[in-house]
Amino acid sequence: MSELIPTYQGSVYPWQCDQMGHMNVMWYVGKFDEATWNLFALMGFTTRYMKESGSGMAAVDQRIQYRRELMPGDTLSVASGVLEAREALPAGFRGQGTHAVAQL
User: What pTM was computed for the model?
Assistant: First the structure.
């Protein structure tokens, strides 16, 4: 597996939260999706490359472990790395999110 590198950094907005005040699960998936695209771009697998080469990608397995809720104003970052890469077969990658809260 490759070393994890920063691929996303952002924060939680109030409109991303559900009735319980936590960031809704749909937004976790979106933030990890952005991290995925950043990881692939860093490896040269950009939208332009895919169009020009006739290649693409598909998410076939996602596993998320929720360790604690994120609230409005919380910040988070994702670090990603390649799990495996094989010729002509799907490659795996790992994204790991971290959570930080700024206190004033």
Answer: 0.75
